[in-house]
């Protein structure tokens, strides 16, 4: 299946607030997002379409046409207050999860019959986004960073083999990285909060796990790595094992950037040799 993606941007204000809740309850649930007059973001929307390839034009859909359709939808959102100026968030909170679902409905309804919406990704900030593909589940993702030292060294290999396999990364005293971990959780959107997962709780859960590595030496200070090389593969699998039971079954995908060039991903399914 051929897919095509175009990126769009819009800027909007919003506020997380339920008028049927007390101020305390709103502030406890939504934190800073309950701020009285709202706050705002530069949103980035990646629209992915699929469909039958037109062999004459070589396109699934003319990008100019897609630009016009999505542009018309975003007119209602751009430089507006989502709660006050649009009709979509009178009875639901304009969370990233809810906004991406509203956009799906509006864009899907306008596409020509030969194309269909395949995926939407809406970034609220560079480290917070939601993914939606039209199903019951919405995916919410957040990126976290940690800085750690490590050394690649496998106890099962000789010193000479370790040096051969890992090269510079086998340096006895270690080296380090700024790691970025992208955590994707999925599930139904809770009607009262508009969220797939309690963001405050997710942040504190993930932070607590990453703080064991952050500003530490992974091999020397994290017992799981005492006898296991701290490769990106092993770290991402270790983090899955720590995070999955703490995130209520919602964890779907982890992406671990070791450097800007090295990416390791895991979805919980292990095939080892
Ligand atoms: Zn916000
Ligand atoms: Zn390294």
Describe the structure.
The structure is a single chain. The protein is 28% helix and 30% strand. The chain has helices at residues 23-30, 63-75, 82-85, 96-110, 159-166, 199-210, 218-221, 232-243; strands at 3-14, 39-51, 80-81, 115-125, 128-132, 138-150, 175-187, 216-217, 251-257, 263-266. Strands 1, 2, 3, 4, 5, 6, 7, 8, 9 and 10 form a ten-stranded mixed sheet that branches. Strand 9 (251-257) and strand 10 form a beta hairpin. The longest helix is centred in the middle third of the chain and has 15 residues, at 96-110. The structure holds zinc ion (2 copies).
Summarize it:
With 273 residues, the protein is an alpha+beta fold. The chain is 28% helix and 30% strand.
Taking Cα atoms only, what radius of gyration do you get, to the nearest Å? 22 Å
Secondary structure: number of strands? 10
Enumerate the spans where pLDDT stays under 50 for 5 or more consecutive residues. Answer: none
Class from secondary-structure proportions? alpha+beta
CA-based shape = globular
**Name given to the CATH architecture of the largest domain:** 2-Layer Sandwich
Helical content band: 25-40%
Query: What's the CATH class of the largest domain, please?
Result: Alpha Beta
Largest sheet: 10 strands, mixed
CATH topology of the largest domain: Tetrahydropterin Synthase, Chain A
- Bound ions, cofactors and other small molecules, one mention each: zinc ion
Query: What is the CATH H-level superfamily of the largest domain?
Result: 6-pyruvoyl tetrahydropterin synthase/QueD
**Please, how many domains?**
2
Order of helices and strands: EHEHEHHEEEHEHEHHEE
- Give the percentage of residues in beta strands: 25-35%
Mean pLDDT: 96
Q: What is the helix tally? A: 8
Distance between the ends: 31 Å
